[in-house]
Amino acid sequence: MNWRGRAICIWNIKIVGIPLSGYNFYEKLQSWWTWSSLCDAIGTIGIMLPCLLCLDICKERERKISEGPSHRENNGDDERIENLARRSNDQSEQCCGSNGICSHEVLRDGECDTDSKSLLNKFARKASFKLSWWCKGDQSDQHKHDIVSFERGNITTAERSSKQISLKWETQPRTVLILTKPNSTSVRILCAEMVRWLREQKKLDIYVEPRVRVELVTESSYYNFVQTWKEDTETMLLHTKVDLVVTLGGDGTVLWAASMFKGPVPPVVPFSLGSLGFMTPFHSEQYRDYLDSLLKGPISITLRHRLQCHVIREAAKNEYETEGPILVLNEVTIDRGISSYLTNLECYCDNSFVTCVQGDGLILSTTSGSTAYSLAAGGSMVHPQVPGILFTPICPHSLSFRPLILPEHVTLRVQVPFNSRSHAWASFDGKDRKRLAAGDALVCSMATWPVPTACQVDSTSDFLTSIHDGLHWNLRKTQSYDGPRDI
């Protein structure tokens, strides 16, 4: 074989795909090397020089391939991690110092970089997780947007769950329902004046109770335009006709207005004409200015949650024989009535046993009712927009029985045991008293339909004003400044 043949053979090594790296290339060349002629030697050297150069290049490439991937990957990962850490520290210094919440670390759909996520999963020490909300055993994948999880195991809130609620009219209100406190001359005079002003100045349709319409028409035939209802069943459809409810009285009038709506409740504007009012921030003297502003909107409102109660009789064969739901805005009270014996009540929360109440009774209250009977029994005052159920015993036969505040999603069941010495009695917002015999139960949960009441300023300002003015909360004389001092 001459040198040209050897050159073709060597060239074919690359053509047929024999790898230059990982192959004993020198031995292969030596098998073809002969010293038959100087011409052959010179030709072979001419071919060998480029081949040796290619061999060195291939060896260098082999070395980089064997060392490079992990080395370059680690170097790249280190650089990216350093960049992420630097970026995180910069953002933490910018936001955490001022707000206390690192919103840039919050995971949101589609906002997390894939490389950053994989690197953090690889090198982070904390386990990642996400939160989902469920209750009563019904688990779902619905995630709450105001509470989220961090990738590295830290929890924060993106925004607070309870904010001031504002109501803005999309169309002008056309119908107003006015509810009044009975047997009050001042309220009757104000009602007639307000009806006339709303009709003449605002061109609104007016609904009142049958009793009030009789009083107005008796006073003057001018009020024949005022509408009312003839049967109590017609009140079930009031929410489809009424845009706004105006109450003239105290908290009792607001409770009466809420009880008229078994479903959705229109916005309620409560004017204070009673002896004590925690839910009546508007003064009747300026009713024209208040109503003019409220009819234009927007309105700051407080959503006052209600309890939905069912009385389940022990003799009932199925759920269809239970008594219909009763909605309460303040509280439901279970007490011993006229019996001289202690009440004996078994209490359950979502089928978990809570306690056995032995005492004068038990109050299940909304946060709006926290300043009513529950407060007198030792319960705490709670902001009305805090969703929860107050569990307050009445004169318990145990000094360690303290009141509780339970979350709004639970279902409470209070049952009279068969070994009870006497019956119990349940009252709903102070009326509709029902007897609970042995084996009967009362089931309470948060109702779907709250009562939206208009605010004079906002819900927090109105709440604080009510406890300052109504209860004289923490009112005392200021300590004298001329006594002994530390300095």
Throw out a few tags for this protein:
487 residues; alpha+beta; 10 helices; 32% helix; single chain; eleven-stranded antiparallel sheet; five-stranded parallel sheet
Describe the fold and architecture:
The chain contains 10 helices and 21 strands. It has about 475 residues and is an alpha+beta fold. Strands 10, 11, 12, 13, 14, 15, 16, 17, 18, 19 and 20 form an 11-stranded antiparallel beta sheet that branches. A 5-stranded parallel beta sheet has the order 5-4-6-7-8, sandwiched between helices. The protein has a 3-stranded antiparallel beta sheet with strand order 3-9-21, with no helix packed on it. Helix 5 links the parallel strand 4 and strand 5. Helix 1 packs parallel to helix 3.
Indicate the low-confidence ranges by residue numbers: 1-23, 91-113, 119-127, 139-152
| Rg, nearest Å | 40 Å
Helix content: 25-40%
**Beta-strand percentage range:** 15-25%
What is the general shape?
extended
Q: Overall mean pLDDT score?
A: 77
How many strand segments?
Answer: 21
Please give the count of helices. 10
Main sheet summary: 11 strands, antiparallel
Please state the oligomeric state of the protein chains shown. Answer: single chain
Class from helix and strand fractions: alpha+beta
- First-to-last CA distance: 114 Å
